[in-house]
Amino acid sequence: MNLKGSLPLLILHNLSQAPSHGYAIAKHIKDTTNGILDFKEGTLYPTLHGMEKQGLVEKYKEVVNGRARNYYRLTDKGHQMLASELEEWHAFTRAVNTVLEGTS
Question: Each residue of 25-37: pLDDT tens digit?
Answer without folding.
Answer: 999 999 999 999 9
